[in-house]
Amino acid sequence: MTPPTLPHSRIPASRDAPVLRWGIMGPGWIAERFTESIQAHTGQVIAAVGSRSLERSKAFAEAYNIPSAYGSYEELAAAPEVDIVYVCTPHTNHHTAAVMAIDAGKHVLVEKPIGVDAYEARDIAFRAEAAGVFAAEALWTFFLPKFDVIRQIIETGMLGTITTVVAEYGEHFDPSHRIFDPVLAGGPLLDLGTYPLALITEVLGSPQRLHAVGQPHESGVNAQLSAVMQFDGGAQAVVNTHLHNFTPTAATIVGSEATLAIEGPFNMPGAFEVRFPDGTRLRHEEPAGGHFEGLHYEAAAVARAVTAGSTQLSQRTLAASIATLEVADEIRRQLGVVFPHPKAPTFEGKI
Fold first, then answer.
1. Which domain holds residue 227?
2. Is residue 179 part of a domain?
3. For residue 309, is pLDDT > 90?
4. Segments in the chain forming alpha helices (H)
C-alpha cells in the first residue's frame, strides 16, 4: 500500500500578481505591517494614505515613501489614484469606512472583523454587490500557503469524517491598549477570537447549538470567553479566547481517519502535522513567521481576483465572514456583551 503524502501549496509567488494601486484608510499598527509586507514581497503600489489627521497621514506617507497623504477618509475614498481601499480603522468604524469607499466606486479589503456584527457584514456585502465592486475581509491566515495545503487535506477526505475542532487564542496586552476600551468594541472576541471562530466555521459550518461562558474585566470589556458548539451530524467544537496572557494559540482538527494538529500560533506561517492512528505522521514544514512574512499573500490574492473581474475571494467569501460573525453575535448575546453602534447600517438585502 502506498503511504499517504501531503499535497503541495498551490499559492503562486506574490510578486507575480498583477499590480493594484492601494489606499490605506487608517494608518495604524496593522497598516504598518501590511505596507511593510507588500512593499517587500510584491509589486503592489501603496498610492495613498488617509487619516482623520493630515499630520499623521503625512508621517506615514513619509515613512513608507507613499506619494499622497490625505487628512480625511472621504478624500482618500475619492482619490483618483486609488483602485482599492484597505480599511484598517478601529473595528467600530469598519462598516462606515467600507461603505464610504464602496459609494466612491472603490474596491475594498476590510481588516478583520469586517464589521462588529453580522448585520454590518451583510450590509457591506449587499452594497458591494449592488455597486459591482470587490469586497472581502482581510483574514490573512486563510491566504497563507499552509492553509492552502490544509484546505486540500480536508477537501480530499484525508482526515475522514471531521468530528471535533478545538482552537484557542490568548494574548497579553498593555493596559493602554484599545482592546480594553468598551467604546471601541474591546475584549478578545473580535481582535483574537475571530481567528479560532473563523477556523471552526470554515471547517464545520454554522453550529446548531452553542453554549458560552464569560469572565468580565475591570475595564468593562469581556476578559475571557469559552464556547462549546454542536453541528450537523454531531460534530463539536470548543473555542477559548482571552486577554490575560499568551497561550500556545494552537488548533486541532480531529477526523475519523486522522488528526490535523496545527502548531501555535496556528494563524501565522508555520508547520503542522497530520497524525494517523497507526503512528504515521505527515509533517508540513514551513518557516515560522509573522505579519511581515504573511500579509502579502492576501494582497496578491486580492489583486488577482480584482484583475480577473471577481468581486469576492474563494479563500474567504463574504458569506463565510458573515457566518463567523453570526457565531460571535450569539456568543455576545449569551454573555450580555453589547458593542456600540455609532451609526446603524441601512441593510436592504441578503447575501
1. 142-293
2. yes
3. yes
4. 29-41, 54-63, 73-78, 94-103, 118-131, 145-155, 188-191, 194-204, 291-307, 318-335
Has residue 62 been placed in a domain?
Answer: no
In a domain, 54, yes or no: no
Q: Average of pLDDT values for 220-232?
A: 98
Helix axes 318-335, 118-131, angle to 10 degrees: 160
Q: Name the burial class of residue 170, with classes exposed (0-12), middle (13-18) and buried (19+) by CB atoms within 10 angstroms of its CB.
A: middle
| Burial call 215-246: b when 16+ CB within 10 Å, e when fewer | eebebebbbbbbbebebeeebbbbbbbbbeee
Residues with Cβ within 8 Å of residue 24, at least 6 apart in sequence = 31, 34, 35, 46, 48, 49, 50, 60, 66, 76, 86, 88
Least confident of 1-5, 185-189, 324-328: 1-5
Is 158:230 a contact under the CB 8 Å cutoff? no
**Domain with 277 in it: what CATH number?**
3.30.360.10
DSSP 157-225: TTT-SEEEEEEEEE----TTSGGG-GGGT-SHHHHTTHHHHHHHHHHH-S-SEEEEEEEE-TTSSEEEE
Residue 250: inside a domain: yes
- 134-147: average pLDDT: 98
Domain count, the chain: 1
pTM exceeds 0.90: yes
**Cα 205–Cα 216–Cα 250 angle in degrees, nearest 5:** 45
